[in-house]
UniProtKB/TrEMBL annotation:
PANTHER family: LEUCINE-SPECIFIC-BINDING PROTEIN (PTHR30483), PERIPLASMIC BINDING PROTEIN OF ABC TRANSPORTER FOR NATURAL AMINO ACIDS (PTHR30483:SF6). Pfam families: Peripla_BP_6 (PF13458). This is ABC-type branched-chain amino acid transport system, substrate-binding protein. Residues 23-368 form the Leucine-binding protein domain. Belongs to the leucine-binding protein family. The keyword Signal applies. The keyword Signal applies. Keywords: Signal. InterPro entries: BCAA_transport, Leu-bd, Peripla_BP_I.
Length: 412
């Protein structure tokens, strides 16, 4: 009895001491409103799970973590202003975002302020390529990595196809289309047609017109390089036009929230890529990954998607680097991250030193039939993994990276 009382007293004393310590603040840029608000909610949930777990284990350097969240609305100028506000509030790391433009803008401002920055949902090759810098680390995969795994799967299982591309006219859309054209040998734009969708201000008629052009072409594979509500609306229109019955639809960067928003019937049989799904920890025998899935289910009565997993991993990895460095100093944390290998929610991953890209396995996935999805307890078991590629094979090598960088061959 006395031993039990002493343990409770020690835990109470430790908790009170931790609460009294000055918190270490993290800044989350996330889309609370706009086209990507569903993804934003998932980002915040994943981040909060990581913060709560670290705090329950004694915090970081003897201090609790505190998450500050600001709405970026997926706009570059707002994300940049948020970074400035975070810095004024004393944050020590910034992460988040929902598109490549805001990642590039926010990352540049974070570098100027000496803050490590980790983008999420930002797939443009430029982020760790032409626009990469010392203070930016990307946990999610690049467009080229998605293209490599898709290109290999399609060349093996669906060779000699004719493609039509509908792509967002921004950094990610252009780099994703270019990378997939290279990977599928569909570079000839006369044979493999395309329509570009304006990055801002596109309307229903723009999406419909692009789909009608695709339908009028000889293509048997339709690639839709869109995200968020742009993708949801386009997929619903494609379903109304019954394009999925005669064309294989490819969405290079799929997320669980997209299938949820568009509906599993609309998304049936669509092929795309994911860096992580909730089934991966069991497949790769990741104890920590399975524990994360269980904690997320307990908190939200839903499966975690790759977006939540990315935010969770970023917080955990930054905190682990701070612990190794014994310091919150940006340069010390950068040194602790570079070339660090680890296992967290799946098999081995590492932060590459020359470009700060996270090298990890990538999966091609297919959306399961609605009838199968509806049998799941949460009606969220959306993806069948159809192909896997190791990170070293998927990621561009040093020579490719240096070609893109030109004369600027080191991160500044």
């Amino acid at each position: 009895m006395l031993r039990h009382v002493l343990i409770v007293l020690l835990l109470f004393t430790h908790s009170a001491w931790l609460l009294a310590a000055e918190p270490i603040r993290l800044g989350l840029n996330y889309p609370k409103t706009g086209n990507y608000k569903a993804e934003g909610l998932e980002l915040r949930r994943g981040a909060l799970l990581a913060v709560d777990q670290i705090n329950s284990q004694g915090g970081l350097l003897g201090r609790p973590l505190e998450l500050m969240s600001l709405n970026s609305a997926a706009r570059a100028e707002k994300a940049r202003a948020n970074v400035e506000r975070f810095a004024s509030e004393g944050v020590r790391m910034v992460f988040g975002g929902a598109n490549s433009e805001e990642a590039i803008a926010a990352g540049k401002r974070a570098r100027e302020l000496g803050l490590p920055f980790f983008p999420t949902l930002a797939y443009a090759n430029e982020i760790t390529g032409r626009d990469g810098h010392r203070y930016l680390f990307r946990e999610s995969n690049s467009a080229w990595m998605s293209a490599k795994v898709l290109g290999q799967y399609l060349s093996w299982h669906m060779p000699n196809r004719r493609y039509y591309y509908i792509s967002l006219d921004d950094a990610w859309g252009n780099s994703m289309e270019q990378a997939l054209r290279e990977a599928t040998r569909s570079r000839d734009r006369a044979r493999h047609g395309y329509t570009r969708i304006a990055a801002h201000g596109a309307r229903r008629d723009d999406y419909l017109g692009a789909l009608q052009k695709a339908a009028a072409s000889d293509a048997d594979t339709l690639v839709i390089v869109l995200l968020g509500q742009d993708l949801v609306q386009t997929m619903r229109l494609a379903h109304d036009l019954q394009l999925g019955r005669r064309m294989q639809i490819i969405v290079p960067n799929l997320t669980q929230s997209i299938v949820e928003q568009a509906g599993p019937l609309v998304m049936e049989h669509v092929i795309g890529t994911e860096a992580w799904t909730w089934q991966v920890p069991a497949l790769e025998k990741s104890t920590e990954g399975q524990a994360f899935v269980e904690r997320y289910i307990e908190a939200h009565q839903a499966y975690p998607g790759s977006t939540a997993a990315s935010a969770y991993s970023i917080v955990r990895q930054w905190a682990a680097a701070v612990q190794r460095a014994g310091s919150l100093d940006g340069e010390a944390v950068i040194a602790a991250l570079e070339n660090h290998h680890y296992e967290l929610l799946k098999g081995e991953q590492y932060w590459r030193d020359f470009d700060h890209q996270n090298v990890q396995s990538i999966y091609a996935v297919r959306v399961r039939p609605r009838s199968e999805i509806m049998q799941d307890r949460f009606k969220q078991d959306y993806f069948t993994i159809i192909h896997r590629m190791d990170g070293e094979e998927a990621a561009p090598d040093l020579d490719d990276w240096q070609q893109e960088r030109g004369d600027d061959l080191t991160l500044q």
